[in-house]
Amino acid sequence: MPFRTTHRTARHLPRGASSGPRPAPGAAGGDPRTAGSPGAPDAPGGSGPKAAPRTPNTPPAGRRRGEGAWGWLFVSPMVLILGLFLVLPILMALWVSLLDWDGQSNPFTGQAKFVGLDNYRTLLTEDGLDRTLFATSLRNNVYYVALTVPLQTGLALVLALIVNQRLLRARGALRTTFFFPSVTSSIAVSTVFLFLFQGSGAVNTLLSWIGVKGPNWFADSRGVLSTLLGGLGIVDPDHPPGVLADHSFMGLSWYEWLSGPSVAMCTIILLAVWTTSGTFMLIFLAALQDIPRELEEAAAIEGVNRRQMLRHITLPALRPVLFLVLTLGTIATWQVFDQVYVMGQGAPGNTTLTPAFLSYSTAFDDADFGQGAAIAFILLVLILLITALQRWALRERGPRPGRNR
Amino acid sequence: MNATATAAPEARARDAGRPVLGRFPLPLRALGYALVVGAALLYLLPFALQLVTGFKTDPDAAAHPLGLVPTTPTTAAYQRLFGLSQAGDGVPFLRWLGNSTLVAVLVTAGRVLFDSMAGYALARLRFRGRSLLFGFVVGVMAVPGVALLIPKFLVLNTFGLFDTYTGMILPLMVDAAGIFIMKQFFESIPREVEEAARVDGAGVIRTFWSVVLPMARPALITLTILSFQGSWNEFTHFLVATQSGQYETLTTGLARFVSGGLGGGTQYPLKLAAALLATLPVAALFFCFQRYFVQGANSGAVKE
């Protein structure tokens, strides 16, 4: 019965989760610290009568003997698994990124050659194929992020505004339709897109109906920007202007940096927009339904029209969530991997190569694990920097409404 | 709406369904509906074509990629997938299916148990280092997954878990986002219930298992569904944790098969049928429990 779910269900969990005594993530740490730091967890019995009034939520301490041990027992699976398969591996990879290791011997016995920061140096400063490839992957991913994030955010916002229309028929069905691609396997939908975008596939057949000859999507390495400008006669793709061809950055000429995503990359961008817009639509929808009705009614009494309502009431109320969606989108798009693996593996002409995939293929296909790990760490730092930057921007914009911590 | 509601709330409820502004004029409304239906088709058509193409022959799929009715309907693709015809070589679909099922079931069970244990401890039990651990969980959620491909391989390789079921399953059995969801939920349960159980002499485990967990049913269902979806669709971890064909899942198997250098239009009915079957379990869950998926999407917002 998917269509029976009304807009109310969209906010079921946030409501439930926020109805209780829920401190913000930052504040949550304050509770145990004040209640337990002076030895209370180990010897709660002694401070029994005094402990209770200190924080309203603290239960009578007398029955809490051994709670500290229970606490650690309960979190031990988490500590073990996250420690062994997340923290330790990161440290190991940090070490391997300083080695010249082919994946054969044990990298922790000193058999592999220690090369210091060489792996990073070849990627960032030394002229050579490695740096050119890495720069190419960065260029591709920058275009991927720059196109995917605004498109998916805009589309999600429009879809949310549509399914939030109170008089629209079959809103539930539409919401289900738009959301469904988001829950499916990335590998499975990539397979479908491979089929749709073949040279003589469904998309090109559709295009031919309106008289457009579609490109051979996955084999087309031409950058869309340079092709577009070439088509307008501004730039000749075969003879780029001297300024752009003569100057280079990280081993790629300015012309290559500026030529735009390839046609093949554009299909991956379309796929990403198509699959993720549903999730972000739901986040927008929950925020739309949290706008106080009184506010909208007051505005309506003032006689605002639809555009003014959108501009002065709806969009300002959505701004915090908009930042959230942009952040989540940026973090996710810098990690694109599955689609690249299925749809291009870097081909054609390295134009679908992304840092994530380059890191994988350098390690597992070229058996250069040190270099692969170094790429992974540069990517990691990059993503964490972007996250930090966006969090900082978020904080500057004032507090967000309570339900979306 | 509650049947015993008085007149005033009823009126308010009726109001809530009504738009604040009036209807669009008719021509605009017609145009709007046309656009919305068009958009919906864009979201549905790929799946419809996938379904139909699975019942086409290879030449038919190549010649009529947009045809919504197979010219010569055949179940050859499905017969190959289920090993009913000789040509099933290279596509050990049943093995993929078995591996995916095994892994998804075990990972889901592990996540539901371990995430709720950790979430409960972080929400309710007082112990030294709790706030530090919670900070750790929040930090873990910020680590981008693709940066962990090589690290994960390294640790599995070092421990001798590379290319084993243990290596596929164990690292996925805890996830920080699930712990976060459970912690949030446990904090919303009134403490009095636990107090009462404790006064009655129930220990920590008993309180957790017989009192708190049953109350957490909605959150547990959400966690179960999200865990199953996540592990069923998981790709990168299996890609770096395994090597031999016997451990291939629907995602790694299909990805290798599809990207495996086979030329353009070949075997699309087979590939699309396999992709469809790989989508089916999660799709079925989605249509039965959509609201829990919706909560999951919104809990993405929780991560911030």
UniProtKB/TrEMBL annotation, chain A:
CDD domains: TM_PBP2 (cd06261)
Subcellular location as annotated: Cell membrane
Regions annotated as coiled coil: none
Keyword terms: Cell membrane, Membrane, Transmembrane, Transmembrane helix, Transport
Ranges of compositional bias, category Low complexity: 30-53
Region ranges (Disordered): 1-63
Bias kind Basic residues: ranges: 1-14
Primary residence: membrane
Transcription is among the record's keywords: no
PANTHER family: ABC TRANSPORTER PERMEASE PROTEIN, INNER MEMBRANE ABC TRANSPORTER PERMEASE PROTEIN YCJO
Protein known as: Sugar ABC transporter permease
Organism: Streptomyces rugosispiralis
TrEMBL record, chain B:
Transmembrane region(s): 30-49, 102-123, 132-153, 165-186, 207-228, 272-294
Pfam families from the UniProt entry: BPD_transp_1
Keywords on record: Cell membrane, Membrane, Transmembrane, Transmembrane helix, Transport
CDD domains in the record: TM_PBP2
Membrane topology note: Multi-pass membrane protein
Family, per entry: Belongs to the binding-protein-dependent transport system permease family.
Full protein name: Carbohydrate ABC transporter permease
Species this protein is from: Streptomyces rugosispiralis
